[in-house]
Prior knowledge:
- This protein is of the alpha/beta class.
- The chain is built from 16 helices and 15 strands.
Amino acid sequence: MKIYNTLKDTKEEFETLEDGKVKMYSCGPTVYDYFHIGNARAFIVPDIVKRYLEYKGYEVMHVLNFTDIDDKMIKRANEEGITVDELAEKFITAYFEDTDALNIKRADVYPQATEHISEMINLVKTLIDKGYAYEKNGDVYFRVDKFDEYGKLSNKKIEDLQAGSRVDVNEEKEDPLDFTLWKESKAGEPEWDSPWGQGRPGWHIECSVMSTKYLGEEFDIHTGGVDLTFPHHENEIAQSEACCGHEVVNYWLHNGYINIEGEKMSKSLGNFFTTRDILDKYPAEVVRFFLISKHYRSPINFSEENMKDAAKSLERLENTVDRVKYLLKQDVQDGELKGAELFELVAEKKEDFIAAMDDDFNTSLAIASLHELAREVNKFIDQDDFVLTIDVKKALEKVKETFEELGIEVLGILKTTEETENDLVPDLVELLLETRSDLRDQGNYEMADQIRDELSNLGVAVKDTPQGAEWKIKE
């Protein structure tokens, strides 16, 4: 199994620090608003990673933080006339509502920045004692030039950064590149006691504290959007390694951007969408399918057309699963035993799926293998001499299990049987279809068509096949 490591700019064989266990940290949201569709991808990627690693037998410890104090939060809380704590509680609740809708499994720990202020102060003290940080008028800064490997994650050179790239002008800094670890509070802002006066932490320090507190001074995987590579993750590396004296993270995973109709998402362009906006317009399972339809490191383009394509693609998989479930309810018949052919096909496509996921979690190719399986299963069923023999039924049971194993357990894109079936509805539809079949046998096609049309009006799509009428609930 190989993972692309941003730090090394290459795919590396995945080796855990502890046999059978994976420790993973993900940068979570700043909870001042509903998270946008780009954030949703950053939250789904570690979900896929965790699901697949657990599928492979690993025990995964996953930590995702909430940034619940920063300038944006203070500004938004003042605008709404509520406290920063109240604002955080509101949007943390919204985060769970939206991630639950997207079928994102819960992390094991959700630390909040404000719950770890004392640990942040202790880390800043350590950095000052080691000469990596200094205090100036109530603010504390990290000395970038003291950390020799600064820029190693983002491949930025200090001399280029000194030329003016993304550097705040601040005359109190020893060097324009130095970044804030602790800042003096302004009037009316939330504040905490510290050795340097009343203040609050800088943004970058929180992840160094919370990741190492819950996962230790060495852990396996750190995830986040590619936009966090610099300066956030670069600064996090500098802080953590300056404190610990060694590398803390083994594999850095960064997901690509989401573009809107070919352009980068931006409020100024009017193409900024929260995930909640998207979920109001499209089914959650379609949104999730769309977000994993490309390799996580590749940019992905959000558009009306691409969402329609995602819905159709997902529907093809669902239709195949529904068709298999329908056949599994039928009685077996005598005929030529052909189940081995189907068993072999399932094993082959499952191998393709695992090979794709083992290659840096390539969900695009993994989904393609499921589509190939669906296409071949449909071809098998559509054969003129298809007979539901006992061995074919066993093979179809394996097909169903495989779709559930890979499509539900690993990718989280297909619905469970409990989600798609109600005990009464299938029985009633089957009864109507049996009546319709009898009417057709009697030559009463008008009444048979009326049953089909009424079922369609009720949201049940009926399709006649050589094996009999098949049906599914319309979206």
